[in-house]
């Protein structure tokens, strides 16, 4: 990663390299299998897969920000928010990202962008309304840590394969396969194999990204607490945000749930042990326990 004052995390770096290696291998195998099964359509597969990958990676920040209703704001509009980001960037010795606000009562924040020069850090109006300045500082330090460690870009690339598997399955089932069904005696077999291969690929990529996502959230909590020297502020923000989520209408939480992997805290947290294995975030208890250990190490009780 670029040299910043955020503590380097070798565990996170190793997991990102390992995940990208497996995702890349899975991607090559997936495209290869599709080219064998759909041998007459391989140029379309290559062009579609390559084009979708470039688009998702290059425009990931704009797509994510637009999808979550983020709007870039000026220092005149939100001076306190910009002030916190300015202080943290100076403390971390890193470039200042663009600052955005999303008009949502769901208290949350996220960071996106393929690198530090294209990064966006966004807070919702619900978060800004509920948190004290020192708590907001902890949350934004957490999000800036994602930018510094470049795990936002890795998550974008890692999630691409699942998107590709789903889209190719839909196109194949409702497009090419059905059109050739009357002439090709293997069409029925292909129509069964492609969804099966896509489902396996999606399941593997889903599990890989979930495992990485949970670790990167713990890493960002750790880095933010060490940078600011106030793990209690981040713990307070986590507790307050989690408590506020319980009072948000379920309909609003369901709308936010698809973006859980980007958010500071999940819109709908998993409570069952099996669900926790598939969740994007570690449990609140795990996050608070880690912050408690850091506070003890810093002599804060």
UniProtKB/TrEMBL annotation:
Q: Where is the Peptidase M48 domain?
A: 77-292
**Which Gene Ontology biological process is one annotated for this entry?**
proteolysis
Q: Which CDD domains match?
A: M48B_HtpX_like
GO CC annotation terms, alphabetical: plasma membrane
> Where in or outside the cell?
Cell membrane
What Enzyme Commission number(s) does the record list for this chain?
3.4.24.-
Give residues annotated as binding Zn(2+): 142, 146, 217
Cofactor note (record): Binds 1 zinc ion per subunit.
Which Gene Ontology molecular-function terms are recorded? metalloendopeptidase activity; zinc ion binding
Membrane association type? Multi-pass membrane protein
What keywords sit in the KW lines? Answer: Cell membrane, Hydrolase, Membrane, Metal-binding, Metalloprotease, Protease, Stress response, Transmembrane, Transmembrane helix, Zinc
Required co-factor(s) are:
Zn(2+)
According to the lineage, what is the superkingdom? Bacteria
Transmembrane portions of the chain: 12-36, 42-59, 152-175, 187-208
Q: Which InterPro entries match?
A: HtpX_protease, Pept_M48_protease_HtpX, Peptidase_M48
The catalytic site is made up of: 143
The family classification in the record reads: Belongs to the peptidase M48B family.
Spell out the protein name for this chain: Protease HtpX homolog
Origin species: Streptantibioticus cattleyicolor (strain ATCC 35852 / DSM 46488 / JCM 4925 / NBRC 14057 / NRRL 8057) (Streptomyces cattleya)
């Amino acid at each position: 990663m670029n040299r910043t004052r955020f503590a380097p995390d070798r565990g996170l770096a190793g997991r990102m390299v390992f995940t990208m290696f497996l995702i890349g291998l899975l991607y090559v195998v997936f495209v290869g299998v599709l080219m064998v099964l759909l041998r007459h359509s391989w140029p379309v597969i290559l062009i579609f897969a390559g084009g979708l990958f470039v688009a998702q990676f290059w425009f990931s920040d704009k797509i994510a920000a637009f999808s979550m209703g983020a709007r870039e704001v000026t220092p005149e509009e939100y001076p306190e928010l910009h002030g916190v980001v300015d202080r943290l960037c100076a403390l971390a010795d890193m470039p200042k990202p663009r600052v955005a606000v999303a008009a949502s009562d769901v208290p949350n924040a996220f960071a996106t962008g393929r690198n530090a020069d294209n990064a966006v850090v966004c807070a919702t109006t619900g978060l800004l309304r509920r948190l004290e300045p020192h708590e907001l500082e902890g949350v934004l330090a957490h999000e800036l840590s994602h930018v510094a460690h470049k795990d936002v870009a890795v998550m974008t690339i890692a999630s691409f394969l699942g998107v590709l598997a789903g889209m190719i399955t839909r196109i194949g089932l409702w497009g090419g396969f059905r059109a050739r069904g009357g002439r090709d005696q293997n069409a029925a077999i292909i129509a069964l194999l492609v969804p099966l291969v896509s489902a396996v690929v999606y399941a593997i990529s889903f599990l890989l990204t979930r495992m990485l996502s949970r670790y990167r959230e713990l890493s960002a909590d750790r880095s933010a607490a060490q940078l600011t020297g106030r793990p209690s502020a981040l713990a307070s923000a986590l507790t307050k945000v989690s408590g506020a989520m319980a009072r948000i209408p379920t309909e609003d939480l369901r709308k936010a749930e698809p973006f859980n992997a980007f958010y500071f805290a999940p819109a709908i947290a998993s409570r069952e042990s099996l669900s926790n294995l598939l969740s994007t975030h570690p449990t609140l208890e795990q996050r608070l326990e880690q912050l408690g250990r850091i506070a003890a190490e810093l002599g804060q009780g």
